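Sorry to interrupt, but I need a hand with the structure work. Could you write out one complete protein record for me, on any chain you like? Just paste the record in under my message, thanks.

. . .
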Amino acid sequence: MAVSSQHAPYPENRTRILQALTLATLVLFAASLVLDWAYVGPERTQGEVQRVFYVHLGSFLGSFIAFTAVVVGGVIYLRTRNPKWDTFGLANVEIGLVMSAITIVTGMTWAKPIWNTWWTWDPRLTSVTIMWLAYAAYMMLRAGIEDPERRRRFAAVYGIIAFASVLFTIIIVRVKPDTIHPVVAGPTQADPTGAFDVTDRIRNTLFFSLFTFTVMTATLVWYRVRLENLFERVLRRKIDILAEL
């Protein structure tokens, strides 16, 4: 049965924009893979395994964007008490967790041939794990509070506080001189100049991958928000039906 436009959960223009964004994400991701495997060659010292670096850094940027959006959603919810911002924060936490999990897995894939181990308690690796656990705890917090308004309020506050783990992850390699994790750009204790000494092809591929994961993160968050809204609509409909019985 067709749903009339006036009863549709979303305006048609929003749906078209999301569809276009989805197509753009697929095209960008395909192009990013082509650049990774056909355009840029193996790195001089690391060889073929360096190719995972583009997904590794891109996924970390995606998690950073998502977790930053959690802070924005939390602040606005606390000011307005509008549930849509709680949904926005939840969606970003879930997508951020996925992106940071990709960061950890690709980092381990890179570490095995380079460091001869899947894992080492380097400051950056440890801080990324702490970041992931901090936002996993956000999900546990939500699951443990039944009252919706109280759950939203606690989640908003926790989402803002948890962002400290993201800042710690970014800062740690710039203040710890003994880290063995490479830093792409920016000054560190070990390299005060912060030189970005790579070839043009590596730089172009990297920036394209970063842009791709930015668009991908926005697309996935939008879909997750819609899925949560659909779940809420179904739940309200079930309550209405039970009330009529």
Q: What stands out?
A: The helical segments are 12-39, 52-80, 83-115, 123-143, 148-175, 200-244. The chain has one domain: 12-37+51-244. The chain has six helices and no strands. The radius of gyration is 21 Å.
